Amino acid sequence: MRHFVYILRCRDGTFYTGYTVDIDKRCIKHNSGKGAKYTRSRLPVRLVYWMEFDTKPDAMKYEYEVKQLSRKEKIKLLRYSN
What we know:
By secondary structure, this protein is an alpha+beta fold. Helix content is 44%, strand content 26%. The radius of gyration is 12 Å and the shape is globular. The relative contact order is 0.24.
């Protein structure tokens, strides 16, 4: 099973970081208004970054690390990942 950590850019320019095993399905869920409470009022959202992991613990650890980053650091991460 694949595990993903992803970053969405919301309509208001903010970022949302999450975890999933099906990134396409999760993005559809966010944009349908059935995703995280944070994104519901900031639609549409756009997938701007993802990282794949072999194990859930590795993905969860990375999700936590990304969530600790400042906005400036997240922008830097996005810039260097492309």
